[in-house]
Structures are given as C-alpha cells and as structure tokens.
Amino acid sequence: MFEKILVPLDGSPLAERALTPALALAQQGHGEVILLSVPYVKQIVVEDWDNYGFDQSLEQSQKELTEYLEGLKARKAYPDLTLRTVVEAGDEAGMIVDMAMDEEVDLIVMATHGRSGISRWILGSVTEKVLRHAPCPVLVVREDKPLSHILITLDGSALSECALGPGMEVASRLGGHVTLLSVESSRDIDPAFTAQLDKMEAGLGARTIEDFYHRTESYLQRVARELQDDLEQVVHIVPRTGPIAHAILDFIETEDVDLVVMATHGRTGLSRWRYGSVTEKVLHGAKCALLIVRPPLSEFE
Question: What's the whole-model pTM score?
C-alpha cells in the first residue's frame, strides 16, 4: 500500500522526525521515499528593478537545500529502498500537494511541533493545508519515537472504515498493536417503546434494550474478527459512550497511544467528517502522531 512515500523537509531537526517512520514503512515494502524541499528566501535585497537580490537569495537557498538533501540521502541509504531528492521552488503546501499528485504518492509523512497541535509546524499552516488537500493519506508525527500502540477510530460507517486498511498496514509493517475505538453518544430508549414491544412479543423489549446498548461492542467485535488474520497481535476493541472527541482524546492520553488513525471526508476536508468537528478537535488536541485518510471523492459523493 505504501510503496511511494513523500517526506517534506526544511533542513531542521524538527522536520527530520518524519524520516524514521517514513523510512521504516518504505523499507518494509521495498519502496521509494522522495525527500522534498522548497527553497525559501532568507534575505531579500532589491537593488534594482530586476530584483537581483531576490534571485541571488533564492539561488543560494536552493543550493543549500540540495546539498542538505544529498547529505541525508547518503546517510540514510538502505539496500531495501530507493531514496530520491527533489528541490522545487514555490508555495510550500502547494508544492507538497502537487508533488503527491504528480508522483502518485501513497503516503505523505510530515513533522509538526510536539508541544501543541498542527498549527505550530515549522512552516506555519503548511501541515493543515496539506491535510485538507492531499490526494493520499497524511501521517503527521510529533516525536521521534516508535509507533507501537495504534488506535483506529470507527463510527460504523463505510467512510470511517477507510481508515482500517492504512492503519493495519502501518501496524503490520512496524509491528504495532491495534486498538479499535468506537464512541457512541449517550442515548436512552423510551420505556414506552419497549413496553409496546413487550406487548407484541414477550421479552422483545428486553432483547431490544440489550441489542441497543451493546451494538457498538458487537460491531467492533465483527470488525476485529475480519482483521485478525492480517496481524499477528490481537486486535483489541474499546466501545465507549459519551462526548465523542473527549472520549477519543481521553483514551489517547490514558492508554499511551502512539498513533491515531482517522478517516475524513474526501470532498470538503477535515471539518466535514461524520462526527462534525471531531477530527479537527483530535488533530489539535492529541499529542501523538496522526494518520489522516481521505477517501476518493467518488466513493462518498
């Protein structure tokens, strides 16, 4: 699944945190990693109408980034993967998305600041723009640490289940263990409704209540059984009830989750997930790595 991986780098140790999982994923699949840098202007001195100072600064930046990427390529070379370097001038987020589309990349891996959400990445709002427009899954890492505990969030919809394939692929390649989490909003069955059911058939109301309050657990059990053959470790399930975003963030914090995998709608970006603003709340509130999957538009029009 992840045969071609794009890693945007800006020359900083922070951005290089993305290299560890990207190289590990690619090496397991004998794939290719593209190291992309976008030249930036460190100093602009307009000496005449030809913008000579601007051109000179951009050229220097391109040279420095080319040398930087070639140095990384030499240090990170592995026999089981291909490393390619690209330096292209332009808008950072636009270049990343365009490169992913042109190269038919399977995964983008980016680093963001560990102390807060995605808005603090070294290039400002670049990560969030990429998440909204990337044609492939995007893995956002905050720390240089193993992705051992992988959480996949589900809501029972086909859209949310698009996270299963990429999430299980990461777990399989990196040897992580998987937890499936589904959060049900707190709701009660009207006693009058169950009384009516009991009039129709003795015990039907009680069975309906049982099915209602255990439907999330039953759903997760079914999904886990279907996935188990593809993973050596046991797939754990966690049904929860309550405010959805809060429950997800609480589980991430208390159970030492290293990576949370979520699907978002391919048509309108993060803010239109089935849970409304849940994806964005998790993106901004979680301190772990995130893998965001955006299914093709045609699947959920």
Answer: 0.81
